[in-house]
């Protein structure tokens, strides 16, 4: 947010690491403006046109001229027919659009005087837009399945993206550092990072093998006590038993998903009766049998494999004996070597991703992989508000080959430390404790102390991007109304990690509750919340005025709150 002076002018300085386009939204106009570190861009903003001056004037003027040739319309048309389009057909069409736009760009460059810099940037934009669109095939296809306005074509063939689908991504693309200048590069990275072929298994279980941890500690020269060695030895037998079950889920995620989707109604009915426990393949098969539903050969094989993976009475007895004997010792062991266990898990995940990248692209190292690693490790800092230790930082830096990106994780780590320190001095927020009440009285007990004031309730979570964006947008309105009879009340559930929540709320002025899972589920049902952020308006009498307030601009919300205060 930038304050505009009475004469209509504004000035803002902000940090950037490289030349890039920034998104500017003002008075009904939306525009991308190219900026560079240490340079000034001057722009006169008008509804119909923009005038650029300053250091980046030539580039921005030329990029504005190019806008007409980079239309999304052809890509939108492709998306509308996605159910009838094969992966290879879709990829071919996207590459044809890219080539067509490149030709139009060349024709325009020959007709007008265009700066080489602007031409270079636009070429990158066209390229990475096409790559981003190709990588979004599975997302668009799955979206078409769920869309009510575009019912899935019943004649559409099922699809599977083979490794060959990604052959358009060459080593030169993966190592193109200039790509960061393109406004489409971040989306390209995002779609690539979450491409199904590179993602971890759809169903994965987080588990630590105690014997693996012991081997890792041995490599580091850390000696275990006799009691710890005894526990590790005893754990080897139970690990072999546990792996049998885990491997079933790790090797059959697509088959399990397909089985549940094929019998969605029966699955949802069973899941409704036990919301906290996942319905197993065997339970679903048993329910279908009582309904007289026949299974396919593949489904029968899946159920048979599930049964083979189940533990015998003897195996269950072995596990029980181990946990009865070493349960407390194991808990203490995991806490004592928590950092080593985390490092080991990170190393396994990194190797898994690297192996997949190598299999698909035939490349062991690239600039793109470094960017992805940095994003993942920086994301951990942002989500968990837990700085890395010196050893963890060294490990991460060793995995990122690009020197700037390798050093940048230290910048992010120091920033996290500074935020934690700064939060200790923050004011304007209050943490509230939920009183023990019956479900029907829960919400009333949370709002009772604010009776006589209008209450704006925000259901949110620390991991929810739209929630955090909405909180940022409303910050200026809260400051404006800080002396009014209005309370801004924030409610989150256990999906917001407590440590992350504690370090997030000092920057969110207002009243805060973090409720239990049962309490969250009750509130979800009470207000029929299908997604967050979700806003509720409570009047001065403490009555729910609007259970689904929806998102409003600050100006519109101010009017709603002012009306209630009357």
Low-confidence stretches: 151-156, 201-206
What is the tally of beta strands? 10
User: What is the count of helical runs?
Assistant: 23
Largest β sheet strand count, sense and barrel closure:
6 strands, mixed
Global outline:
globular
Spatial order of strands in the largest sheet: 5-8-7-6-9-10
Question: Explain this structure to me?
Answer:
The chain is an alpha/beta fold. The strands form 3 sheets. A 6-stranded mixed β-sheet has the order 5-8-7-6-9-10. The chain starts with 19 loop residues before the first strand and ends with a helix.
Summed up:
This protein has 566 residues and is α/β, with parallel strands linked by helices. It has helices spanning 57-66, 73-80, 87-111, 116-135, 137-146, 171-174, 185-193, 210-219, 226-251, 253-262, 264-273, 281-290, 297-309, 313-336, 338-361, 367-384, 390-399, 403-423, 442-447, 465-480, 498-504, 517-526, 554-565, and strands at residues 20-26, 29-35, 41-45, 50-54, 429-431, 454-459, 486-492, 510-514, 534-538, 544-546.
């Amino acid at each position: 947010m930038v304050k505009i002076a009475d004469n209509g002018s504004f000035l803002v300085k902000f940090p950037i690491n490289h030349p890039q386009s920034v998104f500017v939204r003002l008075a009904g106009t939306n525009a991308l403006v190219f900026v560079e570190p240490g340079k000034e861009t001057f722009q006169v903003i008008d509804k119909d046109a923009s005038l650029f001056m300053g250091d980046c004037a030539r580039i921005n003027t030329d990029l504005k001229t190019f806008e007409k040739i980079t239309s999304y319309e052809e890509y939108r048309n492709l998306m509308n027919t996605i159910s009838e389009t094969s992966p290879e057909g879709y990829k071919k069409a996207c590459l044809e659009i890219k080539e067509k736009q490149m030709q139009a760009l060349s024709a325009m460059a020959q007709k007008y005087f265009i700066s080489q810099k602007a031409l270079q940037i636009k070429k990158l934009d066209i390229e990475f837009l096409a790559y981003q669109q190709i990588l979004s095939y599975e997302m668009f296809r799955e979206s078409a399945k769920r869309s009510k306005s575009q019912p899935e074509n019943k004649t559409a063939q099922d699809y599977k993206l083979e490794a060959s689908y990604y052959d358009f991504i060459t080593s030169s693309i993966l190592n193109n550092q200039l790509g960061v200048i393109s406004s489409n590069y971040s989306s390209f990275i995002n779609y690539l990072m979450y491409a199904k072929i590179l993602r971890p298994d759809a169903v994965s279980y987080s588990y630590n093998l105690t014997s693996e941890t012991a081997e890792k500690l041995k490599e580091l020269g850390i000696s275990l006590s006799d009691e710890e060695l005894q526990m590790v030895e005893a754990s080897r037998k139970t690990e072999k038993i546990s792996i049998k079950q885990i491997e079933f889920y790790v090797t059959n995620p697509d088959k399990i998903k397909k089985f549940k989707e094929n019998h969605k109604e029966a699955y949802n009915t069973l899941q409704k009766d036990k919301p906290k426990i996942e319905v197993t393949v065997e339970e679903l098969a048993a329910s279908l049998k009582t309904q007289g539903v026949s299974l396919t050969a593949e489904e029968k094989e899946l159920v048979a494999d599930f049964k083979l993976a189940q533990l015998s009475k003897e195996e269950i007895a072995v596990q029980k004996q181990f946990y009865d004997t070493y349960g407390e010792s194991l808990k203490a062991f995991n806490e004592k070597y928590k950092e080593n266990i985390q490092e080991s898990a990170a190393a396994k995940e990194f190797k898994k991703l690297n192996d997949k990248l190598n299999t698909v692209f035939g490349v062991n190292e690239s600039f793109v992989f470094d960017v992805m690693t940095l994003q993942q490790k920086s994301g951990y800092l942002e989500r968990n508000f837990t700085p890395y230790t010196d050893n963890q930082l060294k490990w991460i830096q060793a995995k990122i080959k690009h020197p700037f990106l390798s050093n940048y994780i230290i910048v992010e780590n120091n920033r996290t430390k500074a935020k934690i320190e700064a939060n200790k001095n923050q004011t304007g927020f209050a943490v509230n404790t939920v009183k023990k009440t019956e479900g029907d009285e829960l919400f009333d007990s949370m709002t009772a102390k604010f009776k006589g004031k209008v209450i704006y309730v925000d259901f949110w979570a620390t991991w929810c991007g739209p929630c955090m964006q909405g909180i940022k947008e409303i910050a200026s309105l809260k400051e404006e109304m800080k002396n009014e009879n209005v309370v801004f009340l924030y409610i989150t559930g256990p999906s917001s990690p407590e440590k992350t929540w504690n370090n997030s709320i000092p920057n969110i002025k207002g009243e805060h509750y973090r409720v239990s899972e049962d309490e969250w589920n009750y509130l979800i049902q009470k207000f029929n919340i299908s997604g967050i952020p979700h806003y509720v308006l409570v009047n001065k009498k403490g009555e729910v005025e609007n259970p689904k307030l929806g998102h409003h601009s600050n100006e519109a919300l101010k009017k709603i709150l002012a009306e209630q205060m009357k």
